[in-house]
Design goal:
Elements (H helix, E strand, L loop, with lengths): L2 H12 L26 E3 L4 E3 L1 H9 L2 H5 L7 E3 L2 E5 L4 E4 L10 E3 L2 H6 L20 E4 L4 E4 H9 L2 H5 L7 E4 L10 E7 L2 E5 L10 E3 L2 H9 L3 H4 L22 E5 L8 H14 L4 E7 H4 L9 H12 L3 E7 L16 H13 L6 E4 L15 H18 L4 E7 L5 E2 L3 E2 L1 H10 L11 E4 L32 H11 L7 E6 L18 H18 L3 E6 L28 H8 L3
Helix pairs in contact: 9-11, 12-13, 14-15, 16-17
């Protein structure tokens, strides 16, 4: 949250900027944007994620009820990407990419009954005419009837389960984890075993799939890394879609830090506060002009301290890289030649591979004071392209974020460009090439004095002031998301790399802070996370502005009252509320 940004907002409210023209097409209510079903979902019950095409198939073909929980990560077996579930094994078929058949179930039913063809339940039965309750399959010379038929028809039929390979018969299950050791009426299909559970009579769980995923895993095995429990705070790299997601939702803080020789104790105390709140992410800024004062000569001793502190404490890091050296741009803004920036990002990504998990390319680039005095969308797109390519050369699995946009309705490139309009222009630039050069979008939705559920015009805040434009609201993020969807980029996440509420603020332009009490700050932050968890399936990491700037600044600094701890490091009500909220 920068001083200049909120001065712009204040001037907009009081009508001081004579040439400001709010963008009319962003005044409409934020739409309800559907979830992209390929986004990651974590299952603490087994410690694994589902994402990409496997998650889409799981969600649309019966989900937990049919397939059970994931029991491995994604790995290659028999020439295919596979993931094991309790009751099935998913397999990705690249030759079917883009069709309904790109994910198929492995024929674990056929594997399970191989060699049993002469047993009574597997012998062919005579043809009979179909009825509403019974059906004959000439392809396998077996039938399907009553409850099993209803389940087969309802949850995917031949495409999901395959054709029947037996008649109904009684069979004893194996012991855990592949079964419960009890006997059930069962029927085998190419990709499944149906079981009748009389103890569930009268419920949707009368018919369940047998645990053939577990049986197949016991028989075939999987690499140790595929069976190891996965990090709950960061999904694994998706080798099918070649994408690194963030979690839904990640919990983080923007933190003050020190890079001098006496900074280690300060940084460690900061890490303890982060972990003490139950959070696992931080965001810091790296100043390009300090790291590369001369072309090609890098000095990272200060940045090393905070990143090493985070790594020692198991805290994940987002780094925003800003402010060009004078040799690259005399105004410290986005340089005309972005090539040196690409080299910088390659160096940094390689140096901090595995320690920095996301690189945010610039900060609030729709604000002139952040870009050298003039907002230029094309210049930023070129910078983002170079930065993305540099990061991926240095660390192919690191996340690259489109730099966080500052919420504003101003339309004057010498001051600022409306954030929603800026994003539209970025997508339109050079036939939309920007989509290839970031993994997810960052934004900095402002709350000013408005509760997190409010939004102009259909649900305005209480005032006074700062209510008559959607940029004054936390839910501005929904309008950023809508632009992504309009441009076919709905598979990417939105990360809130700065958001929060200031209490009473002494800095000009932040007068709204006097209308937010410490208790309201706490309530609003908790509610913001609740909204992201329950209403924004596209939300990635949320980074509160801020944790502890109060410990290094004076009350006259605008950053001071946003902090969730006091100047003496003791927790404010907001910190306690964030610490206690469910995660």
């Amino acid at each position: 949250m920068k001083v200049a940004r909120f001065i712009v907002l204040a001037l907009l409210v009081f009508g001081v900027l004579a040439n400001v023209v709010p963008v009319k097409h962003v005044q409409a209510a934020a739409p309800t944007v559907p979830e992209d079903l390929e986004m990651p979902r974590y299952f603490p019950e087994t410690g694994f994620w589902i994402q990409g095409p496997f998650r889409r198939f799981w969600e649309t073909q019966g989900a937990l009820f049919v397939f059970g929980y994931p029991i491995t990560g994604v790995f290659q077996q028999d020439g295919y990407w596979r993931q094991y579930f309790e009751r099935a094994v998913f397999e990705y078929h690249p030759e079917k990419a883009g069709t309904v058949d790109e994910v198929q179930l492995v024929r674990v039913g056929a594997w399970r009954v191989s060699g049993r063809e002469k047993e009574e339940p597997f012998r062919p039965v005579a043809w009979f005419p179909d009825t509403t309750d019974r059906r004959y399959f000439p392809e396998t010379k077996h039938s399907l009837a009553y409850g099993f038929k209803n389940y087969w028809d309802r949850y995917g039929g031949w495409r999901v389960f395959g054709l029947p390979l037996s008649e109904e018969f009684t069979e004893q299950n194996p012991p855990p984890p592949a079964g419960d050791g009890r006997s059930y009426t069962v029927q085998y299909f190419e990709r499944a075993r149906f079981e009748y559970h009389p103890e569930n009579r009268g419920t949707p769980y009368e018919v369940l799939l047998g645990l053939l995923g577990w049986e197949y895993l016991q028989a075939r095995g999987a690499p140790a890394e595929a069976r190891a429990k996965q990090d709950a705070t960061l999904p694994p790299y998706d080798p099918i879609r070649k994408r690194q997601y963030g979690p839904h939702v990640g919990y983080g803080f923007n933190v003050a830090w020190r890079g001098d020789n006496d900074g280690d104790a300060f940084n460690q105390r900061t890490m303890e506060l982060v972990k003490g709140a139950g959070f696992s992410w931080i965001r810091v800024q790296a100043i390009w002009r300090d790291i590369e004062p001369r072309p090609g000569r890098y000095d990272t001793h200060a940045l090393d301290r905070i990143i090493d502190a985070a790594s020692r404490n198991g805290v994940k890091v987002v780094v925003s890289v800003v402010k060009a050296p004078a040799w690259a741009d005399p105004n410290g803004g986005i340089p005309a030649d972005p090539a040196p920036f690409g080299k910088l990002m390659e160096f940094l990504a390689k140096r901090y591979a595995g320690k920095v998990h996301a690189w945010e390319i610039w900060n609030e680039q729709n604000l002139a004071l952040e870009t050298g005095g003039h907002v230029d969308v094309g210049r930023y797109v070129r910078l983002l392209k170079e930065g993305y390519q540099g990061v991926k050369r240095g660390d192919s699995k690191a996340i690259v974020l489109f730099g966080g946009l500052t919420p504003t309705g101003v339309m004057d490139p010498s001051i600022a460009i409306d954030d929603v309009e800026y994003l539209r222009q970025a997508y339109a630039y050079n036939n939309g090439e920007i989509k290839r050069y970031f993994d997810h979008i960052a934004t900095h939705p402002g709350g000013t004095l408005n509760p997190p559920d409010a939004l102009w015009p259909e649900r305005p805040g209480p005032g006074p002031g700062w209510i008559d434009h959607p940029s004054f609201y936390f839910r501005r993020a929904e309008q950023i998301r809508q632009v992504m969807v309009e441009n076919g980029d709905g598979a990417k996440q939105v990360w809130l790399t700065e958001f929060g509420w200031s209490t009473a603020n002494q800095a000009p332009g932040y007068e709204y802070g006097r209308y937010v009490s410490e208790q309201q700050q706490a309530q609003y932050l908790v509610r913001a996370f609740q909204i992201a968890r329950s209403q924004w399936p596209w939300a990635g990491v949320l980074l509160v502005w801020n944790l502890n700037f109060s410990t290094i600044t004076q009350p006259s600094d605008e950053k001071y009252p946003w902090s969730v701890v006091y100047a003496d490091w003791n927790p404010r009500p907001a910190y306690r509320a964030l610490q206690e909220m469910p995660k």
